[in-house]
Amino acid sequence: MKKLLLSIVLTTVMTLFFSETKAQYKNALGVRLGDSYGVTFKTFLRPDRALDFILNVKDRHTYSVFRLTGLYEQHLPVNLEGLPGLRWYYGGGGTIGSFHDKRTDASQFYLSADGVIGLDYKFNGAPINLSLDWKPALELTPETDFDARGVGLSVRITF
Q1: Per the domain annotation, does 12 fall within a domain?
Q2: 9-19 tens-digit pLDDT
Q3: Residue 9 within any structural domain of the chain
Q4: Is residue 116 within 8 Å of 75, Cβ to Cβ?
Q5: Residues contacting 32, CB < 8 A, separation 6+
Q6: What span, in angstroms and rounded, lies between the C-alpha atoms of 54 and 91?
Q7: Does residue 33 sit within a domain?
Q8: Whether pTM exceeds 0.85
Q9: Closest CA to 78 of 44, 118, 49, 128
Q10: Residue 8 domain flag
């Protein structure tokens, strides 16, 4: 009886919070702000699957990084009353780019495996999309490291 009750409760919760919905926009182009800054383009392949491309720059006192990131994302509705445009997403992908050490004036190839989890909001009646996410990266070159500072806010125009 406990297993049946638990199954009913889990099914109800998953139906309420994670039911599938159609994409609220097809494409979006804008800026990403955070630890690094750049341009972002998101396109939906299916109502709940998207590709997000980020071209960004990180410029610090001793180094700079130029990167192109590609992410495959799964979008799911949050189903909060009053916020029909709010969804959460998760996914993964990779980054290629160039790492420049300003102290030695040497440039190296940059490569990382990236994850992403975040919230996506499309304003009803306006072509504006906001995303707030965390994009940790396992840096593979030029040095192996884990970068957990990838919090970013994207502001996009939808079309």
Answers
A1: no
A2: 444 334 434 44
A3: no
A4: no
A5: 38, 39, 40, 54, 56, 152, 153, 154
A6: 14
A7: yes
A8: no
A9: 118
A10: no
